[in-house]
Specification:
This protein is mainly α and 195 residues long. The chain is built from seven helices and no strands. The radius of gyration is 17 Å and the shape is globular. It has a single domain, classed as Arp2/3 complex 21 kDa subunit ARPC3, CATH 1.10.1760.
């Protein structure tokens, strides 16, 4: 008989890690807002699109380390809550919408892999598909549709590439690097090894 999904599946260590990664992201997001403004001044929406992948790392890293259904959703929602409490410049609605978009895609991609494939391809695939769903919502929330077609198209492609490199590939590399230190022995990634 299949075990029902429940929070019991998460150990205290899992929950602490999700919270720590969300806190780290909350702090990082405040600094990224300044980087975003600087990039906007330098090159508008296309330049700003280059760092989109960094915003998604924390939830995917939690997913990579813990490897349990619901990890991305819980981590991204904790992150959105912290961003809201810290006074995110984009507003609470954008924080929660982005969190749900990222989590939904990550959970679906890894469910399709039955939470067994954690290579560079699956990580990159998840991070690639995390971008378009949020892009549609962001375009409506922030008025991207007012951009000309070429700017909109280039910004979208740059965001997808950023997602793959600065989220998927970076997350896989970070997870493996931390795992090699032995710090993740209490997590699924530490028990099962890389990939």
């Amino acid at each position: 008989m299949k075990k029902k999904w429940s929070l019991d599946r998460f150990t205290t260590l899992d929950i602490v890690l999700m919270a720590l990664l969300a806190v780290a992201n909350g702090v990082l997001t405040n600094y990224l807002a300044f980087v975003n403004k600087f990039l906007t001044t330098l090159g508008g929406p296309i330049a700003t699109s280059t760092i989109v992948g960094v915003y998604m790392v924390y939830g995917l890293l939690a997913m990579y380390i813990i490897r349990k259904p619901g990890t991305a959703l819980i981590t991204y929602l904790i992150g959105a809550t912290l961003q809201t409490l810290l006074g995110i410049s984009y507003g609470p609605a954008s924080a929660y919408t982005a969190a749900i978009c990222y989590a939904l895609v990550a959970e679906i991609v890894f469910a399709l892999y039955r939470y067994k494939n954690w290579g560079y391809f699956s990580m990159s695939l998840a991070s690639f598909f995390m971008v378009p769903l949020w892009f549609v919502f962001a375009a409506n929330m922030f008025g991207y549709w007012k951009w000309d077609v070429s700017t909109l198209s280039i910004a979208f492609v740059v965001r997808c590439v950023s997602g793959v490199i600065l989220c998927g590939m970076l997350t896989k590399w970070l997870g493996d690097t931390i795992n090699k230190t032995g710090l993740l022995r209490g997590f699924t990634v530490g028990k099962k090894g890389e990939a």
